[in-house]
Input
Amino acid sequence: MLAFGLSAWAELPSQRVGLPLVLREVYLPGGEVKPLPRRDREQPVSIRILDVRPAKEGFRYDFEIQGFEPGDYHLADFLETSVAIEAIPFRVTSGMPPGLKPPHEGRVIEMPEVGGYRTRMALLAALWLVGLVAILLWKRRRAGEVVEAAQVPASLAERLRPILDRAAKGDGSAEDRAQLERLILAHWRERRPEWAQLPPAELLPALRRDAEAAPLLLALERWLHAPTQETSAVEIESLLAPYRA
Amino acid sequence: MSMAPSPVLDPTTYLQEIRERVGTIVVGQDVVVERMLIALLTSGHLLLEGMPGLAKTLLVNTLARAMHLAFRRIQFTIDLLPSDILGSEILDERSGQFRTHHGPVFTNLLLADEINRAAPKVQGALLEAMQERRVTIGNQSYALPVPFLVIATQNPIEQSGTFELPEAQLDRFMLCHRLGYPTPEDEEEILRRNLKLGVKRDGAGAVARTEFDMIREEAIGTEADLVDAMEAANGIHVSDVFLKHVVDVIERTRHHPDLELGCSPRAGISLLKASRARALLHGRDYVVPEDLFALAEDVMLHRIRLTYEALAEGKTAAGVLREILEASVS
Output
């Protein structure tokens, strides 16, 4: 920081952009001065009065100057005074290398307008219609794919046959067989919506009485839980009949 | 109990006849009778929760007489003492010696009415006897008769002046069955039977007959039949798959976010034993998932405890258990 007395001015006080330049003991005759208010962003410096002391026919001031643009300036140009005061010059220097060009100012480019309001609305409506048709076509295609997927690979009966074969022979881990039993129960729970709300304690007896669900469920109980299991491939085929639907 | 050398009936017939006999006296409580028989066959104990007037005492009395078992009833009250249940040593003035007076716990079928009305010390004395099947009076330890089954009742509506059984003591009851009101058809049948009771002459006077007067004295089968049925229940086949189902359901209670206390291994054992007895009662020689789901509520509900958050959200233990059971078949 630099401090200068007006009487001791030998050379122009200066400071770089962004750093404060402090001028002390500056005597100005007349009434108390004030910094001019900043009215825009274009003002190259900002003045702040740090201290004011009365002096003979005037006041002594300590100023802090903040420079934004490099150049030579006069303090009086930035003060509101009641009498004319002598020029008090100072310099704001730049840390940038000399000859550097400032960047170009941004220009606002206006987009070319396509017709008027009506034309734009018509275009938006057309775009919306195209989107709607595209979504409908995509959904139709998906539905077709799902139907194909359901028809092509295998029915539930086909998928169950190997698992049931293993269960009937007592093969596979206990966990797998338990899972199979839960799967069949869940299947019938889903297939009989009128029983879906029943607690399992009531659901199982209901399923055991159901003409369609009971044969496989009872056979499963026999295969998975009875001490001896006896079954044949023909029996499995007949039990899988309701699962082919 | 009378002694007999060998069973006279096959276990399924024996149990079916007992159910039918009880059914002639008590209407529409077949499930409770089934639970009582399950507890008896597996040496478990049964807690009945229900409103007053649902024929709990009549049921136990009828069952005891049908099976020729000794039956005692204790009405639990706040001033009951452990010695009122277990017995005590009494000084015989003539001989100057102490003699042991056996309490009502020395029986085959003990109905502990409104067990939650007694102080925790008394509840503890009974529950200890239930667990160990022995009681100590003075310095002497006495074995309780076999079979020994406690059927305790608690009234869910009268909470004032009661001491709620803690979870550790509830866990000693193999089953906790919630008694409901009879269906309108059963209720009508109860009323019809009551109309036919009539009056019982006693000397020069008379008194109105009750259902208790209709209980037949002769027993079905013998002690050997009961032992045979117990052995048959113990021999029911349990598959590995069924064990997986039991473990799956028990495990789910331990990891459910709404449950602070899940089921103990004792719950799993009880579920298994009870399922075996139920299979026998239904004429099967192996257990099936239906046994598990039919008994799950009675075995598990009194053993789980909700978290405070779940209680604050208005959830019930029964609702959470149903959720768990439904999840295990979906």
